[in-house]
Amino acid sequence: MSQRTVRIATRRSPLAIWQAEFVRDSLLALDPHLNIELVRIKTQGDIILDTPLAKVGGKGLFVKELEQSMLAGEADIAVHSMKDVPVEFPEGLHLPVICERHDPHDAFVSNHFKNVDDLPLGATVGTSSLRRECQLRHYRPDLKIVPLRGNVNTRLAKLDAGNFDAIILAKAGLERLGFDERIRSALTPEQSLPAIGQGALGIETRINDDAMNALIAPLNCELTSITVKAERALNRRLKGGCQVPIGGYAMLTGDDIWLRGLVGRPDGSEMLQQEIRGKASEAEQLGLMLGDMLLKQGADKILEEVYGGS
Ligand SMILES: NCc1[nH]cc(CCC(=O)O)c1CC(=O)O
């Protein structure tokens, strides 16, 4: 029974490796006799580094190759940032486990300024996230938003090279890599509503791999699963792609859930926001309803323009 081998498919970025090792160590804490290997895979998202992802197009740029390795039997599980996981899974695969969420907020990183309000008029901020760009422009129309891609380490190096007054990154990614001291402040959800699934890790497996599904089941965090499922239901209703600024963040208090959603234009000229509260047991329906509210408010028009109508 022991000496079972688990092959974890992971991207090669330092953050992805940290996340795969986090899941490896969590599994080893449950059964020290497991034999766990990392299968390091290069994805499209890692290869195309000089183009804003929204322009590269296509969903699941960071997960497709990991899924193929599982379907080909070269890996047993894949660890993903939930933020990067598309709403639909390929036939034969599912995502039964969402681990306890780390900090979901965006972080303000700068060598000279302590928060967004502290930035001088016309300051340069690096981000390639349309969601961050939209909200920053909406909040501070004077800021100059400049594309910034690459993994977390690369982005910090570009900041240090003096290319930007500040950059915005996910707090969770910085903290996982030990860059806590680089975080000058957290952006509140009112300043920057996080990305759907931000801060949460998910584990994808083959649906029919009963042994593996049972093995990873204890890593599931029920509370995180509920909130992320609500956020992902919102994304499903909005047919969330990476060309539209979309934000979504759910919080649980006891049996109640509070879900906020945002759809906007990258230039910040329009930013629609809605929120909904209800029973946690209806998390997914609430996510879909919130999507409908945003669509009715005008998100349908924005999405239609971006995706060229349908
Ligand atoms: N798109 C890259 C990505 N995917 C997940 C994270 C952060 C970690 C997380 O949200 O779990 C990041 C980096 C960032 O946005 O700064």
Secondary structure elements and pairings:
Blueprint (H helix, E strand, L loop, with lengths): L4 E7 L2 H17 L4 E7 L2 H4 L5 H4 L7 H8 L5 E5 L11 E6 L7 E4 L14 E3 L3 H10 L4 E3 L5 H9 L5 E5 H6 L6 E4 L14 E6 L3 H7 L5 H16 L8 E8 L2 E9 L6 E9 L3 H25 L3
Parallel strand pairs: 1-2, 1-3, 6-7, 6-8
Antiparallel strand pairs: 3-10, 4-10, 5-8, 5-9, 11-12, 12-13
Structure description:
With 310 residues, the chain is of the alpha/beta class. The protein folds into three domains: 5-101 and 199-220, Periplasmic binding protein-like II (D-Maltodextrin-Binding Protein, domain 2), CATH 3.40.190; 106-186, Periplasmic binding protein-like II (D-Maltodextrin-Binding Protein, domain 2), CATH 3.40.190; 233-307, 2-Layer Sandwich (Double Stranded RNA Binding Domain), CATH 3.30.160.40. It is 34% helix and 25% strand. It contains ten helices and 13 strands. The protein has helices at residues 14-30, 44-47, 53-56, 64-71, 130-139, 152-160, 171-176, 210-216, 222-237, 283-307; strands at 5-11, 35-41, 77-81, 93-98, 106-109, 124-126, 144-146, 166-170, 183-186, 201-206, 246-253, 256-264, 271-279. The protein has a five-stranded mixed beta sheet, sandwiched between helices. A five-stranded mixed beta sheet has the order 7-6-8-5-9, sandwiched between helices. Strands 11-12-13 form a three-stranded antiparallel beta sheet. A hairpin with a 2-residue loop joins strand 11 and strand 12 (256-264). Helix 9 runs parallel beside helix 10 (283-307). The relative contact order is 0.14. Bound molecules: ligand PBG. Ligand PBG binds next to strand 8 and helix 7.
